[in-house]
């Protein structure tokens, strides 16, 4: 894969649309939409069933919601009351569903929707069991199943009572068949919570990797600076005592202090730039373990020839940085890492099928920028961005000649 295949920087307005599309079609968001629609099935059934004539008056043969109903001695059309009651129930039902998916509190709205469903059942307008069945599907998500079944044994026969005081066998059987909504809702919400927890664990794993790297760097800096400064403190104290008695020896001690300071400065620069020796093979094995733990299939291709230590370390750092970006900024399911030779140059390519929303040109982090500088210090080049064929590519080309 050549550098020309890497796309040019994406304009800001296109990045915004890309971010919205990725949010819309990510696996987590897609499952969230599925969960919402599945949980709204009970509500749809409560609306559609009477229209399809599931509740038919045994005397007239007409759906009950088209007939007249008696409320407080007044004989009035049933249709307006059915629409009014179902409208309020729908609003309350949707609020509860959204709260369930969002993980917020919904007990008050669940109680309100249950009272509305019970009121529709007692009035006897329309398919009275519909709202009650839909409501039980929500209760099953919030409370244990044995409590839901207990409520069902009381509420469902009540919801199946017709306006003339009889129980419709057809409605009763359809209501019990609709109890599958209870199990469907419970399973779908459980699946949604599992996927959400997995994604949160993936993010936590990425944060943990960053934290561990910071701790490692802090330990390295402590070892380097602590040892060097301790030696410098001892030498300078000795030189101060010898200054009045043995100037020649004091000068020698200060010369050693100067050497220690320069050595400490060199080691600190090496640590900051990431030039301390890191074994590429060990890093690749660690990276594959981390990616596979995050459900990302990882494929490795390595060269047969040994690489210089300095180049080996640089590639290991590039792989580590690329892996961090995959975990934090993409939704990849596959990652391929290849290290090969092209003439007298070593080429590292990391590709994944989850193109990062954040581009290197966004200047939102110094990771890739720092890697670019380190690669350039060895005469190489680093490119990163979405590719024409799909996915994301990080590619580094470094000459072998002149590297120890």
TrEMBL record:
Alphabetized CDD domains for the sequence: HATPase_UhpB-NarQ-NarX-like
Keywords: Kinase, Membrane, Transferase, Transmembrane, Transmembrane helix, Two-component regulatory system
GO CC list: membrane
Span of domain Signal transduction histidine kinase subgroup 3 dimerisation and phosphoacceptor: 213-279
Source superkingdom: Bacteria
GO MF annotation terms: phosphorelay sensor kinase activity; protein dimerization activity
Segments traversing the membrane: 31-54, 74-97, 109-129, 135-159, 166-184
Protein name, as recorded: Two-component sensor histidine kinase
